[in-house]
Amino acid sequence: PFAPTGAQRRVLAEIDRDLAGAVPMARLIQGDVGCGKTVVAAAAAARALGSGHQAALMAPTELLAEQHARSLERWFAPLGIEVTLVTGSQRAAARRTALAAIAAGHARLVVGTHALFQDAMRFRDLALIVIDEQHRFGVSDRMRMVAKGFAPHVLVMSATPIPRTLALSIHGDMDLSVLDEKPPGRQ
User: 135 Cβ partners below 8 Å, 6+ apart?
Assistant: First the structure.
């Protein structure tokens, strides 16, 4: 329900080039809180879903995962796409139902916590992984999540400014996008 900022359009164009490329995307998005990283991630997810694949957004806490799920539900409901939330504290019956839907490919947009890379989690066709506050996950956590798909695209988000040279040493060979503009009305 809003127009993207110039920075969001620029970063989305970078993501589009990555998604159309011959190798899986590995991109870090940096930007202050409130700059619209989640909107950019949602647009990237829409592209994966529009191609018939699954997308997953992983957050470090249940509260943040629930917040992301609510936002994504508002944005994707008009498109007829449901958001499936998976967390560690979920009741067993609800979790079994969610895991079955994800494994069958019926649940296409999945949001969750560390529960997403646990052994019981199976995706049918995971094409895009978005990791929020990526610094809160270990390298092995991120690798276990990537192993859930067949060469999925990876988009990580951080509000922590990291110089390019440090980003390379911490994250490996990731492309860097910076959202350096906030939407109108945000301070």
Answer: 158, 160
